[in-house]
Design a protein that fits this description.
Shape: globular
Number of helices: 4
Structural class: mainly beta
Strand content: 35-45%
Distance between the termini: 67 Å
Largest sheet: 7 strands, mixed
Radius of gyration: 23 Å
Helix content: under 10%
């Protein structure tokens, strides 16, 4: 009897078509700041002759006569033909899968996706590896984008990992919750990853391959009109500044919009191309661009950079998030740890401390009127790579310097992966967005409430981003449309 070493489980994906790990076993060796899923008018692939030789070598070096099975690999292909396995479906941790991943990572003859003849920066493709009748084969499995989108244009059930806390949700009835989606409005699609609100209370949303602005009644396409968009064009970051300028990153370019006019900021002039996050600092009037080459700071027409050259304590130039607080301190999260630069320019690398921020990447920052700072956390070097509910949650940095972490183990957090934290100065509560358990309301004492599609009008458990408008009303960008949470 043959023994099977791999079983494939096809998932009902809840991830967007860009910058996502598709399969349950995720690897951490790839640069995943931005990429698109099997995009391009010319798809990514491989040199057929070189790939055939790779498979021949794999078959010569291993005996597969008593083995059968399949594994799906998600491979990130860059613009020069390097590949990196991002995720896969093998739950058995097979030595064969490990060897295939190693050889695919070493393979230098992948061919990049192209749009109008120009290579895409990074594209994800799926490769099915199968062992049958003693032979290992591999082929690209193209993604049917329309079928893929349709398969996850529905809410997932909330995943509440905190089984010890009882959520009474006493304040839920204090809010009116309204939803705009592609069925009850002219919102083009429901996949809203980023939100920004301008000085006129115009709500900007990234949608799949587009950008819209909502005036409270209708959604209008707001894509930049000064460069060609091509067959696939996604917007990866979004923010509105104090002067009513909206900043957006689209396909590696930085654009700004003000008073009806789009401006392209040429990479050769500003010193960088693309950003994973754009953050407005209202108090200092600075815009932070979080890039793979450091933190770029824009103020009054001047561009400056913080990187490992001028801040030695910065653990990596791959900045995921950064924000300045009321004390002029800059909180920076990178893929290799977090740093605080104080008002005098002194940097503290938290990996060199024993605080709860050691081994954590800061992903969101907000502050209350008393100077307490709230942080969203990501555990970048997890001991269990397959774990979902990791050592993350939020941290509060109290004004006396004490730092306390809140997770499913010691608080009412329903799930530990946080997409955004926002402090409500009117209600004096902290709002916490998650991507599996919905919205959390924390009164900073003992009151934890959890709102999601199983207990409220919020249509999903996946909240990508959130912002307050100028009246203090909370808006959520979700995978099921735009949501307003307004006090009655």
């Amino acid at each position: 009897m043959k023994r099977t070493f791999i079983f494939i489980t096809f998932l009902c994906f809840s991830n967007l078509l860009k910058s996502q790990n598709l399969f349950p076993n995720k690897l951490d060796n790839c640069n995943t700041q931005t990429f698109c899923l099997d995009c391009g008018d010319e798809k990514a692939g491989f040199n057929k002759t070189k790939f055939s030789k790779l498979l021949t070598d794999l078959n010569k070096s291993n005996d597969y006569t008593k083995i059968t099975g399949k594994v799906m690999l998600q491979i990130l292909v860059d613009s020069v033909g390097n590949g990196c396995v991002l995720s896969h479906t093998d739950n058995s941790k097979s030595a064969i899968t490990t060897n295939v991943i190693k050889r695919f990572n070493e393979f230098r003859y992948w061919t990049p996706a192209k749009n109008s003849g120009k290579a895409e920066g990074r594209t994800s493709i799926n490769v099915l590896v199968e062992i049958k009748a003693g032979t290992l084969t591999a082929q690209i499995m193209r993604v049917d984008i329309n079928a893929f989108k349709k398969s996850f244009d529905k809410p997932n059930s909330p995943q509440i990992y905190n089984k010890d806390f009882k959520y009474l949700n006493e304040h839920l009835n204090s809010y009116d919750i309204k939803v705009w989606n592609s069925k009850n409005s002219n919102l083009p699609d429901n996949f809203n990853d980023h939100i920004a609100i301008d000085n006129n209370n115009g709500i900007w949303l990234t949608i799949d391959e587009g950008l819209v602005r909502f005036d409270g009644k209708t959604f209008q396409h707001a894509e930049q009109n000064i460069t060609a968009r091509g067959n696939y064009f996604s917007y990866y970051a979004l923010s509105s500044a104090n002067n009513n300028t909206t900043w957006v990153c689209g396909k590696g370019n930085i654009y700004s919009y003000n008073n009806g006019t789009w401006t392209l900021h040429e990479p050769k002039l500003i010193g960088f191309k693309g950003a994973g996050k754009i953050v407005n600092n209202k108090l200092s009037n600075e815009i932070f661009f979080c890039t793979s080459d450091g933190l770029i700071i824009y103020k009054n027409g001047t561009w400056n950079k913080i990187d490992q050259v001028n801040v030695k304590s910065l653990p990596s130039n791959r900045v995921t998030y950064a924000k300045k607080d009321s004390k002029n301190r800059i909180w920076i999260g990178t893929y290799s740890g977090s740093v605080l630069i104080d008002e005098n320019g002194k940097a503290t690398n938290f990996n060199e401390t024993q605080s709860v921020l050691k081994g954590k990447c800061i992903t969101s920052v907000d502050e209350d009127e008393n100077g307490n700072v709230f942080l969203g956390l990501y555990e970048y070097d997890r001991k269990d790579k397959e774990a979902v509910n990791n050592d993350e949650g939020i941290a509060i940095v109290y004004k006396n310097g004490e730092i306390k972490q809140f997770t499913t183990n010691n608080s009412g957090m329903p799930f530990n992966h946080v997409t955004k934290v926002l402090y409500d100065k009117t209600e004096h509560v902290l709002w916490i967005a998650t991507d599996r358990a919905g919205l959390v309301r924390y009164d900073l004492k003992s009151g934890w409430e959890n709102y999601h599609n199983d207990n409220s009008a919020i249509p999903t458990s996946y909240i990508s981003d959130m912002e307050f408008d100028n009246n203090g009303t909370l808006y959520l960008a979700t995978r099921q449309g735009l949501v307003k949470v307004e006090r009655k």
